[in-house]
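Hi R.,

Here's the chain you asked about this morning:
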Amino acid sequence: RSRQGFGTCFTVQIPLIIQEKVRPAPGEELPEVEPSEREMLKVLVVEDNKVNQMILQKILESWGQSVELADSGVEALERCKAQDFDIILMDIQMPEMDGLEATRRIREFQRGKGKPYVPVIAVTANAFSEEKERYKEAGMDGYVSKPLSKKELNDEIVRCVSPTRILGV
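And the predicted structure, written out as tokens:
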């Protein structure tokens, strides 16, 4: 509804997906580690969407982490060749080189150069069990679903990074 000189009135509907909370399997209980208790990690965020980059960067920096950004799998591989990271958060669907291929090539580079193993967490909207298996086969260590949950992200980082690094021991 519009009237000249009075502005415009419109309605926007945004669907909301409510997800059930995922619980760890028996015997896989994780220590509750607050982000503020964690040693600073050098995190590479590989994401082609600028808004998603900004969200991840804000969350991680609010936890005191050092964040580097890469817009593609190609750029991620180049950054991993040039510097060391403690963990990589990798989008799956990207132009040029997707997250699976980028992870495979990063693993290849690490093995070939004797570089330390760096955990890679998939950041994806595709969290179906068959997809999770593909992520694992590509060399990924875990995944978090989009839309992001800070708790899920924190828990996955805790699970993938060695406890001594997490607790600063």
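The longest strand covers residues 42-46.

Let me know if you need anything else.
M.
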